[in-house]
Amino acid sequence: METTEKTVKLAVNGGIGFGAKLNAEQLIVIAKYMKEGDELELTTFQQLYIEVAESDVASIQTQFEAVGLACYPVGNFVKSLRTCNFCKGSEQEGMPVAIELNKRMAGKPVPVTLRPAYTGCPIGCGEPLVNDIGVMKIRNGYNLYVGGKAKGQDAQAGTIIMEKVDPEQLYEAVDQIIAIYAKYGKNRENFFKFVHRYGVDNLKKQLVLE
After folding, report:
1. What domain range includes position 69?
2. Does 163 fall in a domain?
3. Between these two residues, 196 and 34, which has the higher pLDDT value?
4. Which residues contact 55 (CB under 8 A, 6 or more apart)?
5. I need a labelling partner for 180 at 20 to 30 A (CA). Which of 17, 32, 195, 197 fits?
6. How would you classify residue 177: left for phi > 0, otherwise alpha for psi between -120 and 50, otherwise beta?
Protein backbone atom coordinates (compact mmCIF):
# COMPACT_ATOMS: atom_id res chain seq x y z
CA MET A 1 0.00 0.00 0.00
CA GLU A 2 1.44 3.34 -1.04
CA THR A 3 1.88 5.85 1.76
CA THR A 4 1.54 9.57 1.19
CA GLU A 5 4.30 11.71 2.64
CA LYS A 6 3.16 14.21 5.23
CA THR A 7 3.09 17.83 4.10
CA VAL A 8 3.31 21.05 6.08
CA LYS A 9 2.45 24.66 5.29
CA LEU A 10 5.07 27.35 5.07
CA ALA A 11 4.23 31.05 5.14
CA VAL A 12 6.45 32.89 2.67
CA ASN A 13 6.95 36.53 1.71
CA GLY A 14 9.62 38.88 0.43
CA GLY A 15 10.50 40.18 3.88
CA ILE A 16 10.10 43.78 5.06
CA GLY A 17 10.50 46.22 2.20
CA PHE A 18 8.74 48.66 -0.11
CA GLY A 19 5.39 46.92 -0.33
CA ALA A 20 4.48 43.26 -0.62
CA LYS A 21 6.53 42.36 -3.69
CA LEU A 22 8.17 39.27 -5.17
CA ASN A 23 10.63 39.17 -8.07
CA ALA A 24 10.85 36.70 -10.96
CA GLU A 25 13.63 34.64 -9.38
CA GLN A 26 11.63 34.21 -6.18
CA LEU A 27 8.52 33.14 -8.09
CA ILE A 28 10.53 30.58 -10.08
CA VAL A 29 11.95 29.02 -6.90
CA ILE A 30 8.47 28.81 -5.33
CA ALA A 31 7.07 27.23 -8.50
CA LYS A 32 9.72 24.45 -8.31
CA TYR A 33 7.86 23.03 -5.33
CA MET A 34 4.37 23.18 -6.79
CA LYS A 35 2.73 20.33 -8.69
CA GLU A 36 0.20 20.75 -11.48
CA GLY A 37 -3.09 21.75 -9.87
CA ASP A 38 -1.46 23.12 -6.70
CA GLU A 39 -2.55 26.56 -5.58
CA LEU A 40 -0.90 29.32 -3.56
CA GLU A 41 -2.97 30.89 -0.82
CA LEU A 42 -2.46 34.65 -0.47
CA THR A 43 -3.28 35.86 3.03
CA THR A 44 -4.27 39.32 4.21
CA PHE A 45 -0.96 39.44 6.07
CA GLN A 46 1.20 39.72 2.96
CA GLN A 47 2.12 36.03 3.02
CA LEU A 48 1.83 33.12 0.62
CA TYR A 49 0.99 29.68 2.01
CA ILE A 50 2.67 26.79 0.21
CA GLU A 51 2.45 23.10 1.14
CA VAL A 52 5.70 21.16 0.99
CA ALA A 53 6.89 17.72 2.04
CA GLU A 54 7.79 17.71 5.72
CA SER A 55 11.13 16.00 5.03
CA ASP A 56 12.11 18.78 2.61
CA VAL A 57 11.32 21.78 4.84
CA ALA A 58 14.90 22.55 5.88
CA SER A 59 16.34 22.39 2.36
CA ILE A 60 13.42 24.36 0.88
CA GLN A 61 13.81 27.10 3.48
CA THR A 62 17.50 27.34 2.62
CA GLN A 63 16.71 27.72 -1.10
CA PHE A 64 13.96 30.25 -0.43
CA GLU A 65 16.16 32.35 1.84
CA ALA A 66 18.97 32.29 -0.74
CA VAL A 67 16.75 34.33 -3.11
CA GLY A 68 15.54 36.70 -0.40
CA LEU A 69 12.32 34.98 0.63
CA ALA A 70 11.40 34.90 4.31
CA CYS A 71 9.82 31.73 5.74
CA TYR A 72 7.63 31.54 8.82
CA PRO A 73 5.77 28.76 10.64
CA VAL A 74 1.99 28.47 10.26
CA GLY A 75 -0.17 28.01 13.36
CA ASN A 76 -0.10 29.43 16.88
CA PHE A 77 2.78 31.82 16.36
CA VAL A 78 3.30 35.54 15.98
CA LYS A 79 2.85 36.29 12.28
CA SER A 80 5.33 38.31 10.29
CA LEU A 81 4.83 42.05 10.62
CA ARG A 82 2.26 43.56 8.28
CA THR A 83 3.65 46.85 6.99
CA CYS A 84 2.83 49.89 4.88
CA ASN A 85 4.56 50.59 1.57
CA PHE A 86 7.16 52.98 3.06
CA CYS A 87 6.16 55.46 0.37
CA LYS A 88 8.30 58.31 1.75
CA GLY A 89 11.48 56.29 2.14
CA SER A 90 13.04 53.71 4.44
CA GLU A 91 14.66 56.04 6.95
CA GLN A 92 11.86 58.60 7.12
CA GLU A 93 9.22 55.99 7.79
CA GLY A 94 11.30 53.72 9.99
CA MET A 95 11.93 50.65 7.85
CA PRO A 96 14.97 49.59 9.98
CA VAL A 97 12.70 49.61 13.04
CA ALA A 98 10.08 47.52 11.23
CA ILE A 99 12.76 45.02 10.15
CA GLU A 100 14.04 44.70 13.73
CA LEU A 101 10.51 44.31 15.12
CA ASN A 102 9.78 41.54 12.65
CA LYS A 103 13.03 39.79 13.51
CA ARG A 104 12.18 39.85 17.22
CA MET A 105 8.51 38.86 16.95
CA ALA A 106 7.79 36.65 13.97
CA GLY A 107 7.55 32.95 14.74
CA LYS A 108 7.31 33.20 18.53
CA PRO A 109 4.85 30.65 19.99
CA VAL A 110 1.65 32.12 21.49
CA PRO A 111 -1.75 30.72 22.58
CA VAL A 112 -3.35 31.69 19.23
CA THR A 113 -1.97 33.33 16.08
CA LEU A 114 -1.04 36.93 16.89
CA ARG A 115 -1.12 39.61 14.18
CA PRO A 116 1.21 42.61 14.51
CA ALA A 117 1.17 45.58 12.11
CA TYR A 118 3.34 48.63 11.48
CA THR A 119 2.91 51.91 9.65
CA GLY A 120 5.42 54.66 9.01
CA CYS A 121 3.05 57.64 9.32
CA PRO A 122 -0.41 58.60 10.69
CA ILE A 123 -2.15 57.64 7.41
CA GLY A 124 -1.93 54.08 8.72
CA CYS A 125 -1.68 52.03 5.50
CA GLY A 126 -0.36 49.06 7.50
CA GLU A 127 -3.59 49.11 9.58
CA PRO A 128 -1.90 49.02 13.00
CA LEU A 129 -5.01 50.14 14.90
CA VAL A 130 -7.10 47.12 13.87
CA ASN A 131 -4.55 44.40 14.57
CA ASP A 132 -3.46 42.69 17.78
CA ILE A 133 -0.32 44.78 18.24
CA GLY A 134 0.09 47.96 16.23
CA VAL A 135 2.97 50.39 15.84
CA MET A 136 2.67 53.83 14.26
CA LYS A 137 5.62 56.14 13.65
CA ILE A 138 4.88 59.72 14.69
CA ARG A 139 7.68 62.08 13.66
CA ASN A 140 10.70 60.78 15.60
CA GLY A 141 8.81 58.51 17.99
CA TYR A 142 6.60 55.44 17.94
CA ASN A 143 3.09 54.87 19.31
CA LEU A 144 2.19 51.37 20.46
CA TYR A 145 -1.38 50.00 20.37
CA VAL A 146 -2.83 46.73 21.66
CA GLY A 147 -6.09 44.85 21.26
CA GLY A 148 -7.33 46.02 17.88
CA LYS A 149 -9.82 43.86 15.98
CA ALA A 150 -10.69 44.25 12.31
CA LYS A 151 -13.63 41.84 11.91
CA GLY A 152 -16.92 40.98 13.56
CA GLN A 153 -19.62 42.95 15.35
CA ASP A 154 -17.15 43.70 18.15
CA ALA A 155 -14.52 45.17 15.79
CA GLN A 156 -12.68 48.09 17.35
CA ALA A 157 -9.50 50.12 17.24
CA GLY A 158 -6.66 49.17 19.53
CA THR A 159 -5.86 51.07 22.72
CA ILE A 160 -2.73 53.20 22.81
CA ILE A 161 -0.39 51.90 25.48
CA MET A 162 2.76 53.96 24.85
CA GLU A 163 3.34 57.24 23.01
CA LYS A 164 6.35 58.62 21.14
CA VAL A 165 8.85 56.11 22.52
CA ASP A 166 12.27 55.49 20.99
CA PRO A 167 13.06 52.25 19.11
CA GLU A 168 14.78 50.49 22.04
CA GLN A 169 11.84 51.17 24.35
CA LEU A 170 9.49 49.94 21.64
CA TYR A 171 11.42 46.68 21.19
CA GLU A 172 11.45 46.03 24.94
CA ALA A 173 7.74 46.75 25.31
CA VAL A 174 6.73 44.49 22.42
CA ASP A 175 9.00 41.68 23.66
CA GLN A 176 7.43 41.91 27.12
CA ILE A 177 3.83 42.09 25.85
CA ILE A 178 4.30 38.94 23.79
CA ALA A 179 5.95 37.18 26.75
CA ILE A 180 3.04 38.16 29.03
CA TYR A 181 0.50 36.88 26.52
CA ALA A 182 2.45 33.63 26.05
CA LYS A 183 2.54 33.10 29.84
CA TYR A 184 -0.94 34.24 30.92
CA GLY A 185 -3.08 33.74 27.82
CA LYS A 186 -5.49 30.84 28.07
CA ASN A 187 -5.50 27.97 25.60
CA ARG A 188 -7.03 29.21 22.30
CA GLU A 189 -7.64 32.68 23.78
CA ASN A 190 -6.95 35.22 21.07
CA PHE A 191 -5.06 38.40 21.90
CA PHE A 192 -8.13 40.66 21.61
CA LYS A 193 -9.95 38.64 24.30
CA PHE A 194 -6.79 38.36 26.40
CA VAL A 195 -6.34 42.15 26.48
CA HIS A 196 -9.94 42.61 27.64
CA ARG A 197 -9.61 39.94 30.34
CA TYR A 198 -6.14 40.87 31.54
CA GLY A 199 -6.74 44.61 31.27
CA VAL A 200 -4.80 47.31 29.45
CA ASP A 201 -3.86 49.05 32.70
CA ASN A 202 -2.60 45.79 34.17
CA LEU A 203 -0.61 45.13 31.01
CA LYS A 204 0.97 48.59 31.20
CA LYS A 205 1.95 48.03 34.84
CA GLN A 206 3.84 44.87 33.90
CA LEU A 207 6.10 46.66 31.41
CA VAL A 208 9.58 47.37 32.76
CA LEU A 209 11.55 49.63 30.42
CA GLU A 210 15.07 50.95 30.74
Report:
1. 7-73
2. yes
3. 196
4. 5
5. 17
6. alpha
